[in-house]
Write a structure and sequence with these properties.
Layout lengths: L1 H16 L5 E5 L5 E6 L10 E8 L5 E8 L12 E11 L5 E12 L2 E18 L2 E19 L10 E7 L9
Parallel strand pairs: 1-8
Antiparallel strand pairs: 2-3, 2-9, 3-4, 5-6, 6-7, 7-8, 8-9
Amino acid sequence: MKQVAIAILLVVSLMLNGCGGSSAQVQAASGAIWQAQLNGGSGSVSGLSFITTFTLNSDYTMNFSNFQFLNQGTCFPVEGEDPTGALTNVQVTQNTGAVIANFSFTVQGGGNTLVLTGTLTGTETGTEVGTTNTGTFTSAVATGTWTVSGSTCNLTAAETSFTMTLCTSSTVCPAS
């Protein structure tokens, strides 16, 4: 009888664990681009800006379909950059659609590495599919700091903040 009671408790425990809160998967709207403006820097790394398009994988790593500096210099080539990125600690408030996450973004090219780290905040609309919320960003902004290092460019003491804005058909990117 004791073994049956323990077995029933284990089954109920496993069932309750499977009924927990829902997870979220948030994507950029179709055709949306991100525009980044990097403030500060000096010499060949002052005033960098770029546009990019990516989707988020289920683990919140970024899958890039486009990346382009708007003002190439001696630090990065016109073509051939290799961007990577991810969101971590993604939190979605189900009743408001508010999203907050840690943001990391790296671009390598021409022997140099650009790293952006900060926080992403935004809003999403979505639908519940099973226990997963599949949302689409309606707005999002990443802010934080950036660094550059490498063979031809190194950043020394300078103010290095950035703003990266999601631009959709309903939101226009700021002029670069």
